[in-house]
Amino acid sequence: SLYVSEYFSQSAQKLSFYSWYGNAKLFHFRVPEDTVLLRWLLQASRGKGPECTNMEITVHFRYGAPPVINPLGTRFPANATVRPSYNISITLSSAVQNTTFVNVTTPAAGDWFIAAHLPEAAGRIEVKGFSTPCPYMFQADMFVLRLTDMPVLEPGVAMPQTIVSPAKPLHVKVFVPKHAAGMRFELRSCITSEQKACAVRVVLGSVTLPQSFQRIVTCAGNVNCSLALDSPPWEKWLQIMVESLGAANASVSVEMLASFTACRPGSTSSFLNFSSLNQSQTGPRPGSAGAAGSSTLSTGEASRNVSSQRRFCLQNQPVVREDLDVVSVRYRLLNSPSVPVNSLSPTLLLLNLNTGMDSGGSLVVSLLLNKTSVGLANATVVACVSAASPVLSLNATRNCSTAFFQGYPLSVSTFSAEATLIVLYPQTDDWFLSLQLICPKGQGECNAAEAKVTIFAYLTPCFNDCGPYGQCSLLRRHGYLYAGCSCKAGWGGWSCTDDTKAQSVSAQNLATLLLTLSNLMFLPAIAVAVYRYYLVEASVYTYTMFFSTFYHACDQPGVAVMCIMDYDTLQYCDFLGSVVSIWVTILCMSRVKKILKYVLFVLGTLLIAMSLQLDRRGVWNMMGPCLFALVIMIAAWVYHGVKRRHCYPSSWKRWVFYLLPGITLAFIAISVYAFMETNENYYYTHSIWHVLVASSVAFLLPPRDKHKKPWAWPQKLTCRYQICQNDREELYAVT
C-alpha cells in the first residue's frame, strides 16, 4: 500500500476568557477521503511578563460542525438536543509553551472543528491602556496519513485479501448506495501462514467526535463471522479495517463479502410536484379555475395512492430548500404543509444541510398533529430526525438510531399534539425526518388509520433570535460563518433563556434611572459656568449632559431602553462630550487670554474628535488632552506666579474650599472609572463617576473676572444710553 502524508496549518489566535461563544477561537479543517490516521498538533503559549500566570486552556473537538460547549454550566433552551463535546485541557504553568498531540485512527472524511478558550471571564471592565493583559496564543496544525490505493469492495463480490502483519492492518472501502435499508458484511476463509487459529478484528465505520459509533467484531478460528448494519449512511464510502490479533510474523488471508438490502421508495408523481411548485411560485388567485383544478387533482391522486403506498418501504415527500440569508434556510413541502402518516411504511422528508455553510446555525423541526385526522384515539405518531441515512424501522423497535448515528426522537398524539426539536449546530450532511403511526396494541390496529401532520422545518442563525435579552451575532473564521448569542441583563445560556442570574424589571429600571439621572449633576456646573460668564463652557457641559443621558438610556441591556437616534452616534457624542468637557475645564482654569483660550478650544475639540474616531475606547484619547491641558495650565500658573512674585492662585480660600475638593473628587472619579467597574456593579459605579466628575467641574471653575458684574436682568433689558466701560482683561484678579 502507498501512504501519503499531508500537513495543514492555520494561523495562531489570541485566546480570550469565556463569557459567550464568541470568546471561543474556532479552527476549521477538512480531512480528505481515505485518511487512516489523523494527528492534531496543539501549541499553546503565553507572554513572559509578570501579569502572566498559570492558565488552563480547554480545547473542544467535533466532527461535522462547531462544538456545542457549555463552560459556564448554564441551561439550554427547551427542546434543544445537547450532547457533551469531546475536550481536553492544556495547562500552562512554569513553561511558556506547551505542545500536545491528539491522534485519531480512521477519522471520518469531511469537516472537523476545534474550539479553544480560557476559563470564565472575571467580569471586570478594563480601560484600554491602563493595564496590559497577558497574551495567550493557541495554534492547531493537522497531519493526515492517507492511503492512495485503498481497495474497493464491490457489493456481492467476494474479495480475498492478505494481512501482512498485525502492525499493518488491512483497509478497504465499500460504497453505500442510496435507499440501502441494510448492509451485511461477512468475513470467511480466514487462514494464517502458520496454520494456527485465525484471530482478527474487524472495525466498520470511521471515528467521529464527540461520539463514535464504530462497529467492532472479533473473529476467532475458521468459523465465518458477519456483522449486519441497519440504515447505513447513504451515498458515502464506508471504511472497513481488518487487523490481525495473532503472532507478529504471521500473515493472515481472509475473504470479504458485502451485500445490501434495497428499499423501494414511493412518492407522489413528478407531475404533481411540478404543478405544486409552479402554483407556489405564480400564486393563483383564490377561487380561480386553475387553483380549483389543482386542488381537485391532488385530492383525487392522494386517494388513489393510499393503496399503492402500502407496497413501498417508505414514502418520500418532496421538499424544497429555500435559502433566505446567511445560515438561514426554510424547507417547504410542495404538495401541502401537512403530510399523511400511516403505520405500514414511514413517511420520509429530506432536509438538505450539506452545503458546508449550514452547520453554524440551529435546525428547528416542529410537528403539529391534526387531531381530527387520526382514526384511533390512542395512536401516536413517532418521528426521528437523523443524519446521513433515515430510520426505517420505527414500527418495530421505536429506536431512533441508524448504523452510525444516534438520531433525535419526536412524538405527537391526541394528548400532546405539538412537538419541537432544536438541533444546535447540525453537522454537514443530508438530514432525514422519518414519521410513522404507532398503535399501543399492535400494528394491525392501525392498518386503516392515517394521521395528518403539519411540519415546519427551518435553519436559523440563532433560535428565537436570542430572545429579548440577547443579541444574535454572526461570527467568522476565514470564510466560514457561524452564529452565537451574546446575553444581557444577567441572562445566560445558549439562547439567553437561563434566568438564574437575570435582573428583574425593577432592577433594570433602577439601573436606567441611576445612569441617566446622575447626569443631572451637571446642572450645578452649568449654573456656575453661566453665573461666571463662561458661556462656551456651559454649552459644552449641556451637550455632555444631554448625550450622556440619552446614550445610557439607549445602552441598557434590558427592557428599559429608549434610543432617540442611532446607538453608535449617541456613543460617539457621549465620549466626545466627556473628553471635551475635561479639556475646556482645565483650559478655563489656566486663565490664558481669551483669544488663545478659544483657539485652543476649537483646535483641541477637532483633534479629540479625530482621535475618538480612530480609537474610541483608548485611554490616551482621554489622558492625552488632559495631560496637555494640565501642562498649559501649570505653565500659565507658573508664569502668573513669577510675574506676581507669590503663589498663584494666591487666595488660600480658593485652594481649601474649591481647588483641593475639586481635585480630590476628580481623582476619586478616575479611580472608580479605571479600577472598580465590573459588569455587575456598572450601573452604580458609573453613576458615581457621573456625580463625581460633574461635582468636580463645579468646584474647579475659576471665579469670574472682577470687571464683570453679576447678571442683572432688569439692567440688561433697559433701553438707554450708557457710558462705555473699559473691558481690559485683568489676569491677576483671583480671589
From TrEMBL:
Segments forming domain EGF-like: 458-497
A Pfam family of this chain: DUF3522
Localization, UniProt: Cell membrane
Ribonucleoprotein is among the record's keywords: no
Assigned GO CC terms: plasma membrane
Signal peptide: none
Membrane-spanning segments: 510-534, 595-614, 620-639, 655-676, 682-701
UniProt name for this protein: TMM8A factor
Organism of this sequence: Cochlearius cochlearius
Lineage: Eukaryota, Metazoa, Chordata, Craniata, Vertebrata
